[in-house]
Design a protein that fits this description.
Strands 5-4-3-6 form a four-stranded antiparallel sheet, covered by helices on one side. A two-stranded parallel sheet has the order 1-2. The protein has one domain: C8orf32 fold, CATH 3.10.620.30. By secondary structure, the protein is an alpha+beta fold. The protein is globular. Strand 4 and strand 5 form a beta hairpin. The protein contains eight helices and six strands; from the N terminus they run H-H-E-H-E-H-E-H-E-E-H-E-H-H.
Length: 217
């Protein structure tokens, strides 16, 4: 179980900015793990802007402290941050990945990832001896823009099947098994395997304009 609480280069919960983010997020004032996990869930879901294009997926960019500083990222960034702040509070947590369909998408995003099958990142936490899957990814603002319902925190059941702007729910195709504390290199390799256009020498995901331009040539 200690492996699910350990601090790593990416889950750098001792960093002052992560500590400040965590303390500010604990609005309920409760010491109960389920209440703290709920507080942290909404702080990450709604406090970190969901952005894919132009986000930093270099090793420094995927550190929890960098995600707090930038206040933006996609499901990988937001899930890394949630695992980090949960571990800081002594809540066992791990990163999960799966290929999905019926994802929130645009033509530019589908051009970037190479179709309608996406590598999706989410989390699993242990509360009161029970493992539950949670997805602190698509915030209220994004969901309002797409006319969908955001996923809520549920301590008793998995919360992963986001409804889609295509109608229906996100369809999970295949889960990828990850170590409890994966290295940056393993995460970057997984992204590159599924979405090679996202990974380049700059460490930044290409912009929407760059993707559109390359698709037109």
């Amino acid at each position: 179980m200690d492996d699910l609480l350990v601090e790593t280069q990416l889950y750098n919960y001792s960093h002052p900015s992560v500590s400040h983010f965590t303390t500010k997020a604990l609005v309920s004032g409760s010491n109960a793990p389920e209440n703290q996990a709920r507080d942290l869930y909404y702080a990450v879901r709604d406090g970190i802007s969901y952005e894919v294009f132009g986000t930093d997926i270099s090793q420094p960019g995927l550190r929890a402290s960098s995600i707090v500083a930038s206040r933006r990222g996609f499901c990988l960034h937001k899930s890394i941050l949630y695992v980090t702040v949960c571990r800081r509070q002594g809540i066992p947590a791990r990163l999960l990945a799966a290929t999905v369909q019926n994802h929130l998408s645009t033509p530019e995003l589908e051009a970037l990832v190479g179709g309608q099958t996406f590598l999706h990142w989410y989390t699993e936490i242990q509360i009161n001896g029970k493992w539950v899957k949670v997805t602190p990814v698509f915030g209220q603002l994004l969901c309002r823009l797409y006319g969908i319902t955001p996923l809520e925190f549920d301590v008793d059941a998995d919360s992963i099947h986001q409804n889609s702007n295509h109608g229906g729910e996100m369809s999970f195709l295949m889960q990828t098994r990850l170590p409890d504390s994966p290295s940056y290199e393993s995460l970057a390799a997984l992204v590159k395997t599924h979405h090679p256009l996202m990974v380049n020498e700059t460490g930044l995901v290409p912009t929407a304009a760059a993707v559109s331009g390359s698709a037109e040539t």
